[in-house]
Amino acid sequence: MTPPDIVNDAQRLAALASYDILDTPPEPGFDEVVHIARVLCDAPVALVSLVGQDRQWFKARDGFAPSETDLASSVCAHALLEPDLLVIGDLAADPRTLANPLVTGEPRIRFYAGAPLRTPAGEVLGSLCVIDVAPRPAGLSPKQASALRNLAAQVMAQLELRRALADRDALLRQRAQAVARREDLLKLGDDLREAETEKEMIRIASRLVGRALDASRAGFGHLDARTEHIDIVQDWTREGIASIAGRHRFEDYGDLLPDILRGDPLVIHDVRADPRTAADPEPMLALQIGSLVNVPVRDRGRTVAMLIAQDDRPRAWSAEELVFLRNVADRLEVGVGRLRAEADQRILNHELSHRMKNMMAMVQAIATQTLKGVPDRAPVDALLKRLLALASAHDALLTADWTSAPIGATVASVIARFGLDDGRFAMGGPEVQLGPRATLSLAMLAHELATNAVKHGALSVEAGKASAFWRVEQDGGEPELVLEWRETGGPPAREPAARGFGSRLINMGLVGSGGVDLRFLPSGLEGDFRAPLHQVRQS
Amino acid sequence: MTGRESEPLRRSGVRQVVLVVEDEPMQRMMAVDLVEEAGFEALEVADATEAVSVLEARADIRIVVTDIDMPRGLDGVRLAALIRERWPPIEIIVISGFRALAEVRLPERAEYFSKPYEPAAVVAALRRMAG
Has the keyword Phosphoprotein been applied to this entry (chain B) (predicted)? Predict the structure, then answer.
């Protein structure tokens, strides 16, 4: 006799699947129940039997060797229809079971009593049953029947508890995973900020995606202008999976373009089953792609790039995983955007510097030509030299895109224009970044000091030397930058009689507001220049 | 061509000839003055194409002083490379508003000055090259 239709009821099967119990290892709670049932009913066999679509499988068994049987051998399948216990006093006499192989052949069972395993919603999953090899025309005693019902309720309670625990574990795992993903994203943001090339950014993001999702491959690629190809810049792969970096044509892999053009994430859980790839999944399978997610990066309404995650097996990508990928793609997009902006800024700065230099050259040419006929060359020469000192300061500022200049480079670029022989000028001190204004005033100051030294001071004679050393002083109060100009080996220094522009420039000091101590000594000029460090850095 | 080469100043062996290539007139004027004050005969052109025709027409040019970025035709770097290839004995001075020498590839024996340049330093280079 064929098993009743209820066996294949979709709702019943779904309920059974929701307990995730089939093919799990034995558990003491269930084993104890079948033992008690067997003893109470004084039967050689007791089973917790769960009836699936094509078999009955025993979560617990006492006195019976096989872990499952086909449905033709199942008596329990008939118990599914019963509102209460199914008791068959003689299996060999009952039309439902007389042809059952377990009745007609070994172990020749003759008696069956089963209590249904009914879910709170009313679906019957199977039964708790006792079996005897001798017929029992009187069936179970009322006490035994009652005990069997109660034990079946216990089995259901255990199944419920088991499922609740599994749900809770899954929830905890999900929460832990969500926390880990959030941390991953934060770290990704930090790592991308540190990265200096797009390739490095892609490497960081791909590795993160691959590891966090336990994917087989993760990568990032740009789409060509006609959205026909993707150029995968770089990918991360699990061990044993080959890289697919390089150019790929969408058409070669199925009907992928509509989603990509719309800007929707392309999600394929199984390349063999998905309508977009099922017609010919071979190209995907050849690349060890069983399932995939492509998250688009859009620019002005067009998909320009995609973040890619793949698995070599079919895989149900969860909503949470898709959100994670979207987040990674967004961060990668921001990072790459920053790199592009920086590159644009560099080009702009370069152009600005170029124009600035040409402008300085124009000023130089105009001044030279305008003052060509002036017989007194000294002031003309001073003007042109000061223009060059200004140009040197701009050169120094340029290295940090006009925001600051290192003090050493600023002094060195000014002094270099004097073409002094080795050993005649020494300089040094801690590296301090000067603000734009301090850079210009220090350049002018150094230029005037060196000009005077070459004209009248130590550098006017062969044996003379000059130096500029600086330090940061912090005597309890605010830190100060102190620069010491020293000349030795030249003629005695004399205070200039008239205060010209040159000496006024010198007296303006490091940031244009004084802090200057000049000593005109027989050994040569000594000058100490001080300014609060924060002013030097900011102004 | 703003041609000084038409003037009867070509006393070969007396004054060595320097060709100034610069598209910006005022900067060219300053360079020409500088070259002449240093005791050379100056020829001036506004771009590399004119420079090549002068070089093809005259065999007495000793030094070429060229700007790098010029609007038409070859830029100064390619002009310098061409001169080194076609007229190997000619000395070359390259002047540019570019950021640093590192960004410019120069042929052998060429000297580089950044704008705005120190006139004395360029004069020193001219004299060194003239030997």
Answer: yes
Token output for A275: 């309508």
Give B55-106 as a DSSP string. HHH-S-EEEEEEES--SSSS-HHHHHHHHHHH-TT-EEEEEE-SS-GGG---
At A437 the pLDDT is 87
From the CA of B115, how many Å to the nearest CA of chain A? Answer: 6
Q: How far apart are alpha carbons A383 and A367 in whole angstroms?
A: 8
- Say if the Cβ atoms of A357 and B97 lie within 8 Å: yes
Cβ contacts of residue A335 below 8 Å, gap of 6+?
A192, A193, A195, A201
- Closest residue on chain B to A359 (Cα): B116
CB contacts, 8 Å: B118 with chain A: 388, 417
Chain B residues touching A417 at Cβ < 8 A: 118, 121
Tell me the pLDDT of chain B (131 aa) as tens digits.
444 443 434 444 568 999 999 998 999 999 999 999 999 999 999 999 999 999 999 999 999 999 988 766 678 888 999 999 999 999 999 998 775 556 677 888 999 998 899 999 999 999 999 88
Quote the CA–CA distance of A115 and A152 in Å, as a whole number: 6
Q: Name the 3-class secondary structure at A399.
A: coil
Q: Is B36 on the interface with A (CB under 8 A)?
A: no
Domain ranges of chain B: 17-130
Tell which of B118, B123, B127 to mutate to test the A interface (max A CBs under 10 Å): B118
Interface contacts (A, B; CB < 8 Å): 55
Task: Using CA atoms of B110, A363, A435, B96 in order, give the dihedral in degrees to the nearest 10.
Answer: -20
Neighbours of A90 (CB within 10 A): 16
Q: Which domains does chain A have, with CATH numbers?
A: 5-165 (3.30.450.40), 195-332 (3.30.450.40), 373-538 (3.30.565.10)
pLDDT of residue B99: 54
- Residues A528 and A519: their CA atoms lie apart, in Å, by 9
Q: Look up the ipTM and state it.
A: 0.81
CA distances from A414 to A291, A440, B95 (A): 64, 11, 19
* Cα angle A433-A434-A436, degrees, rounded to a multiple of 5: 135
The yes or no reply on domain B17-130 and CATH 1.10.3210.10 is no
Which of B33, B99, B116 lies at the smallest CB-CB distance from A361? B116
What the block records as the tokens of A516 is 């200057």
Best of B115, B117, B122, B128 to substitute, by most chain A Cβ atoms within 10 angstroms, is B115
Q: How many CA atoms lie within 13 A of A513 on its CB side?
A: 8
User: Mean of the per-residue pLDDT values for chain A?
Assistant: 90
> What does the pLDDT average to over A440-456?
93
pLDDT, mean of residues A446-466: 94
Report the C-alpha gap between B99 and A353 in whole angstroms. Answer: 7
